[in-house]
Structures are given as C-alpha cells and as structure tokens.
C-alpha cells in the first residue's frame, strides 16, 4: 500500500507569515487610505551591484556561443568561485579553509535543511530558541522531532537553547548529551551575535563532547564590531567540530539568483568517516550544480569593484538598522540587535504579548513587523523589525513609533 512521509504532516504549518499577511490584509481592506509600512520583510530590496550585473550579462553572452558555452557545472562548484571564496572569506581573515573543502550550492536554505541527511536518524539535535525555522522543520521531516506540544511550542526530542535578554542572547551550553547543534550568528531573528570568546566556548564544548556545530553565517557581512567572528573557522579547534554554511543572499543580494556554499574541513569525521566525502557524495547524487552564470556573478561580488559596491549597499541597510534601534531606544523601548545584523529585536511593552504588539503597531502606527513568538517559545514577548525597507520609509516608521508615546 502506498504511503506518504507522515513526518511532513506533523509540521504545524507556516502559521507565522500567513497570519501576519492575513492581519495586514484585513487591516488594509478596512482602512484603504492608510499607508502601511512593512518592516517585516526578511528579503533584500536594493538591486544587485553593477559589477554583478555586468558579470551576469557577460556570462549570458558566453552561453550564446559554442566556443564558450557551459553545460553542467562541476558538482561541487567552479574553481574560480571556490578560490574567490577561499581567498576573501577565509584566508583574508586568517581562517584555515582549503578550496577543496568549499562546496557550492544554490543557497543556505537548501544546505541548512539538507545537511542533516548525512547524519544518522537517531541523533540528538539542539537548536537556538528563537530560531530560523528551517533547522527544526528539516529535522521534523526526517523524523527526529518526537511529539509537538502545542502548549510549550516545543518538540519532545529536540533540545532548545533559549536566548533571551536574561542571558544576553547567549544560550547556555546543553546539559544533556547532544550530537548536532545549529548555531546562527549574527542571529536571525534577534540580530544579536556571539563574540570570539563566546563562540570559542561552543567549539571547545563540541570537541570535548563529540558534538558537531552547524554554523550558519548568512549575516556575517553585517558585522560591524571588532571582536565578532565572521567565520567559525577563525577559531582554533573548529576544524574538528564545525560545518559552516554561507550565503550570497544577504551579503550580495542574491536572494533571487540563488548561491551559497557549505564548508566541511577534511579532518571532520564520525567513526573514521569523512563528513566532507559524505556531503560531496550527497551533492553529486542529488544536485547538478549551481548555474554557471550565477557562479560568475558570485565571483564578481568578490572583485575590488564588486566588493566596494556591495559595501555601499550593506551600509544603506546598516543605516536603517541603526535608525530603528536608536529611534526605538529614544521612544523608551528595550532594544537588541541591529549593530551586527539587519534585524532589531525589541521587548514588547509590559502587558502585551508578541501578537498584541503586532496589532497595536498595525492599528496605531500602520507598521507591520514580525511577532517574536513565531520564531520559537523564547521569542514570546519580543518583536522583530527589519532594515530592508527604504531609508525614507524606515525613517517615517520610526517617527510614527516615537509619536505613539506622546
Ligand atoms: C535568509 C537566511 C538564509 C537563506 O539563505 P539563502 O542562501 O537565500 O537560501 C539562511 N539562513 C538564515 C539564518 C537566513 O536568515
């Protein structure tokens, strides 16, 4: 008899963004003359850097000529891109990563959801709380979640690493045995991050406990502070316990183009089996490579011109983040993040839960954000605003929030 994968049915459904959309649309329908500002978007909005566009055009033209035409890309990525990543993202920061350890993909979402496939079905998983939902959902689909408890919002077999203002958004090391830990720094949704000493504790713990860290560095290019690692491979000991997942989406605006990379050190093994070999085996079987034109675009994002143009784009978003952070602080809110990430995380005013505050902000300031509880139980009582709208609209939103207090 035929059967579906029943674990898919266990997923509670993407309630968060659907519910945000429903409430926003209901409000706009009832108040058609109101100008609603969206600070909920987790997608970039500025166009690609000119150097990237130029590389795309050139690569498209190459596809028009038999002598330069490219078919299937190498399974693990073109060397021109892997070398650019190795040089700019690792060697330049003193991180020991070899070209052969960089595996190109179509993005960090695919890699962060697929990486669990190379591990056994019964391993114990720990995730940050609140968290980018992909790490949890991909493990639920693979049957590692146990039972979902509606009341606590937690899966019985997962270990939750709570991050709140009380622990300065630095979750404690797990007390129970854990095999795989997903870390995302700078963090989505809180916009907070770990400094070098904080992350070193995780590396040391993982080495001592035979655990592996999956480090999602999608937001590393937003880092502005000195003592914050851009890659986990900047830290001693990381090569025997860490896998890093990188994305071109937030760094270079590739959310629509699709490009990412996963880095697995050669010496990372379980029972003498190389995880890099397993991951490459998986990629060769299930993926035919990121498009040539997109890999050329990725390469161009590392040219001197490309880097300078991307820095300007990032500066634009950073200015929005600081505007939100400082404006909200001025308005009396308790605010976190925004310094090393395009996200500002705020504590909802006393007596309001995440959804109450969502409605309050929508009805009184016509601003849409994202309720923190949607990212996990420890997000309850928090709210996320993003820096991806225009400067003008962001400034207007901040003025509206300030005016609420008067
Ligand atoms: C946006 C985001 C990603 C997705 O990256 P893609 O490369 O676009 O798939 C991965 N991780 C986190 C934490 C993100 O916020």
Explain the overall architecture.
There is one protein chain. The protein has 406 residues and is of the alpha/beta class. It has helices spanning 6-9, 15-30, 50-62, 79-90, 108-114, 134-141, 196-208, 249-252, 275-286, 292-300, 304-330, 354-365, 391-404; strands spanning 37-38, 102-105, 125-129, 148-149, 154-155, 159-162, 180-184, 212-216, 242-247, 260-263, 269-270, 273-274, 335-337, 343-347, 367-368, 370-371, 382-386. Strands 2-10-9-8-7-3-6 form a 7-stranded mixed β-sheet, sandwiched between helices. A 4-stranded antiparallel β-sheet has the order 13-14-17-16. Strands 1-15 form a two-stranded parallel ribbon. A hairpin with a 5-residue loop joins strand 13 (335-337) and strand 14. Helix 3 (50-62) runs antiparallel to helix 10. The mean pLDDT is 96. Bound molecules: pyridoxal-5'-phosphate (PLP). Pyridoxal-5'-phosphate binds at residues 107-109, 112, 132, 184, 188, 216, 218, 247, 249-250, 255, 260.
Which structural traits does this protein have?
406 residues; 7-stranded mixed beta sheet; binds pyridoxal-5'-phosphate
Oligomer: single chain
Give start-end ranges of low-pLDDT stretches: none
The overall average pLDDT, rounded, is: 96
| Strand numbers in spatial order across the main sheet | 2-10-9-8-7-3-6
How are the elements arranged and paired?
Elements (H helix, E strand, L loop, with lengths): L5 H4 L5 H16 L6 E2 L11 H13 L16 H12 L11 E4 L2 H7 L10 E5 L4 H8 L6 E2 L4 E2 L3 E4 L17 E5 L11 H13 L3 E5 L25 E6 L1 H4 L7 E4 L5 E2 L2 E2 H12 L5 H9 L3 H27 L4 E3 L5 E5 L6 H12 L1 E2 L1 E2 L10 E5 L4 H14 L2
Parallel strand pairs: 1-15, 3-6, 3-7, 7-8, 8-9
Antiparallel strand pairs: 2-10, 4-5, 9-10, 11-12, 13-14, 14-17, 16-17
Helix pairs in contact: 2-12, 3-10, 4-10, 5-6, 11-13
């Amino acid at each position: 008899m035929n059967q579906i994968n029943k674990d898919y049915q266990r997923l509670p459904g993407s309630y968060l963004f659907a519910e945000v959309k429903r409430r926003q649309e209901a409000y706009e329908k009832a108040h058609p003359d109101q100008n609603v500002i969206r600070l909920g978007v987790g997608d970039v909005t500025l166009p690609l850097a000119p150097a990237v566009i130029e590389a795309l055009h050139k690569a498209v033209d190459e596809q028009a000529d038999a002598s330069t035409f490219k078919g299937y890309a190498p399974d693990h990525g073109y060397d021109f891109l892997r070398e650019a990543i190795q040089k700019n993202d690792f060697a330049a920061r003193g991180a020991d990563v070899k070209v052969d350890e960089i595996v190109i993909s179509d993005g960090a979402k695919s890699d962060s959801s697929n990486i669990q496939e190379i591990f056994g079905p019964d391993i114990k998983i720990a995730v940050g709380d609140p968290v980018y939902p992909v790490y949890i959902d991909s493990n639920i689909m693979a049957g590692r979640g146990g039972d979902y408890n509606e009341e606590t919002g937690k899966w019985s077999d997962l270990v939750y690493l709570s991050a709140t203002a009380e622990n300065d958004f630095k979750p404690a090391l797990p007390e129970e045995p854990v095999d795989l830990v997903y870390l995302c720094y700078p963090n989505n949704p809180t916009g907070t991050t770990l400094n070098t000493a904080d992350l070193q504790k995780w590396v040391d713990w993982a080495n001592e406990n035979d655990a592996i860290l999956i480090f999602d560095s999608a937001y590393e290019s937003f880092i502005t502070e000195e003592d914050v690692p851009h890659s986990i491979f900047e830290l001693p000991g990381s090569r025997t316990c860490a896998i890093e997942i990188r994305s071109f989406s937030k760094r270079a605006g590739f959310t629509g183009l699709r490009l990412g990379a996963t880095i697995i050190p050669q010496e990372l093994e379980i029972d003498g089996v190389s995880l890099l070999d397993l991951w490459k085996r998986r990629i060769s079987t299930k993926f035919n490579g990121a498009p040539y034109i997109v890999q050329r675009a990725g390469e161009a994002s590392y040219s001197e011109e490309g880097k300078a143009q991307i820095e300007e784009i990032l500066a634009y978003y950073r200015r929005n983040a600081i505007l939100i952070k400082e404006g909200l602080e001025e308005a009396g809110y308790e605010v976190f993040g925004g310094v090393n990430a395009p996200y500002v995380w705020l504590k909802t005013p006393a007596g309001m839960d995440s959804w109450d505050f969502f409605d309050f902000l929508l009805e009184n300031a016509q601003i849409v954000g994202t309720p923190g509880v949607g990212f996990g139980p420890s997000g309850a009582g928090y709210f996320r605003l993003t820096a991806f709208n225009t400067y003008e609209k962001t400034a207007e939103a901040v003025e509206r929030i300030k005016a609420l207090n008067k």
